[in-house]
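forwarding from the other thread:

> can someone predict this with zinc ion?

sure thing
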Amino acid sequence: MNAKGIRVCRIGGVDVIIDYSWVIIFFLLTYSMAETVFPEAHKDYGRLWCWLMGIAASALVFVSILVHELAHSWVSIKRGINVTSVRLFIFGGMAETASEPKDGRDEFLIALAGPAANVLLGVLFSFVFISTMEHMSPVTTIVQWAVVTNMALAFFNLTPGFPLDGGRVLRAFLWDQWNDMARATQVVSRIGDVLAVFMIGFGLLLMIFYKSLLAGIWFICIGFLMKRASGGALQTATAAKTKHEQPPRVTVRQIMKKNPVAVDWLVPVNQFVDDYLYRYFFTEFPVLNRDEFVGIVSLADVSGVAAKLRDFKQVRDIMIPVEQLVAPGPEDDADSVFERMLETDAEFMPVIEEGRLAGIILRRDIANYGQIKISLKQ
Ligand SMILES: [Zn+2]
């Protein structure tokens, strides 16, 4: 992943990275708290106090998101997933992992850990809030803000659309129920898509009717981000599914016979019968003119020639020339070559690579290959 950002510290083997974009949100958040929210709540506080409170409040948002991500990381590591870093960026946080959870149960626990951590923090800050409530101090205000932030983080993240934690929890549940990760991803991605549209709409609403430019833009961006992430997750899951379900492609090269017995095109037909047909017991042979592949000759081509004429004709007179042949390349898919052979009732095809004869492929070899694979599969 891109290394854009500042490595702040390392907690439990996980690098904490602050993306440069986070600086923007930190400033905007501090600004809006210091200039609008706190002066309204505390008309008796000076500007300096409001700014200090703003910074403290933003720092608590930072801590809350960090704890959220670290909770995901901690459970991930416990479930055997290698977490390299936690990155905080303009729209929140993200734990960067080297692998995906192996089953629905693991994903369920990992996804739930983040919001659970915020609920715990929220409860913790509530105690502080209650114990300082008597004398409304700056601490009370900031802690109150922290309670709201953590509850909001927990609830927002539990929205059941991918890629939010709630979407992951739902996916884990469905994954466990259906035992089909791709199908579960499909469902939560769709919900994520719908939610994304709602968020974009909500953002527009905030901007137009409530004049909340910052919150509006934030929701719109989150909406677009969610839309992109849910599309990406869907693609990954579908790709993983096709990769998982389809056996690896078998190429012609894996099955073809290399260095096949070939006959020179100037060989008389009689000699071809004695030295090739009766010697190798193949019924079809590739024909070469020096190194160049020029066609194929078969038993059927010979039997079409009257016996007394076989002394006067050469292989080149009776062969099927290369222009009339269907010849696959070595990288072609063996299955589709097999189908083509069935359609044209061909038992044999020359394999051509860069104009040269690379080998021959036999229909029965492809069939046997498939048979062997099926038999040996547990
Ligand atoms: Zn989370």
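Residues 68, 72, 114, 157, 165 surround zinc ion (CB under 6 Å). thats all i got for now
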